[in-house]
Amino acid sequence: GAVVSQHPSWVICKSGTSVKIECRSLDFQATTMFWYRQFPKQSLMLMATSNEGSKATYEQGVEKDKFLINHASLTLSTLTVTSAHPEDSSFYICSASPTSGGNYGYTFGSGTRLTVV
Amino acid sequence: AQSVTQLDSHVSVSEGTPVLLRCNYSSSYSPSLFWYVQHPNKGLQLLLKYTSAATLVKGINGFEAEFKKSETSFHLTKPSAHMSDAAEYFCVVSGGGYQKVTFGTGTKLQVIP
Asked: Is beta strand B32-38 parallel, antiparallel or unpaired with respect to B23-27?
């Protein structure tokens, strides 16, 4: 149980275009999902907390207009990288938890490798 | 506030020998602690978690970790390393509820045949 599906697993796009990444909880409902970014050989950095039916909460330094988050249902959150540039190339991972998370642990998606050319 | 420190960025062991990955934490709350493993270009997989129950926690693939409050540590161990254990390991602390989780910087485990 507690499976999180992330799609696509990799994407290559041209500079200036937008890319949407989906994160789905397959067998549980998640009122809250999290989006992380991981640079090569570094740890995961929390970008934003996605809340179902309300605005996402962004971490300091993360551009809200660049990284659009939509959490329209209890099983789906999307991250859209708008007007992507090569510096946006990274590994993006989402996570969710079927409970309050702190005691259960978070289930992570398999990640999306974004390359902007 | 909370933080987590993984004391070694790289650990190299021979196949069949014990593994020790060190993690120290600080937290203003009674923490929940986790170890995750990440293989190259893959997502993260939960190895084990501590949530204020037994201090010695057993996880998947033969890994275990011991929560030591007096030392604020949560080191990950395995009696005998396997080649498939080569990966990046992350120690994570959470204050509970939907509070933010904090990741350590990761330890890359190399297993030498």
From this structure: unpaired
Q: Decide: A82 and A21 in contact? Cβ < 8 Å.
A: no
Residue A83 to chain B, least CA–CA distance (Å)? 24
Q: How many CB pairs under 8 A join A and B?
A: 61
**CA atoms of B35 and B23, how far apart (whole Å):** 9
For B59, the token pair is 């996880």
Q: Which of A26-35, A46-55, A81-90, B95-104 has the lowest mean pLDDT?
A: B95-104
pLDDT at A37 over 90: yes
Q: What percent of chain A has pLDDT over 90?
A: 57
Rounded CA gap, B57 and A18, in Å? 43
Among A60-64, B24-28, B83-87, the range scoring the smallest mean pLDDT is B24-28
With CA atoms as reference, report the closest residue to B43 among A57, A29, A2: A2
Q: Looking at chain A, which residue has its C-alpha nearest residue B37? A: A108
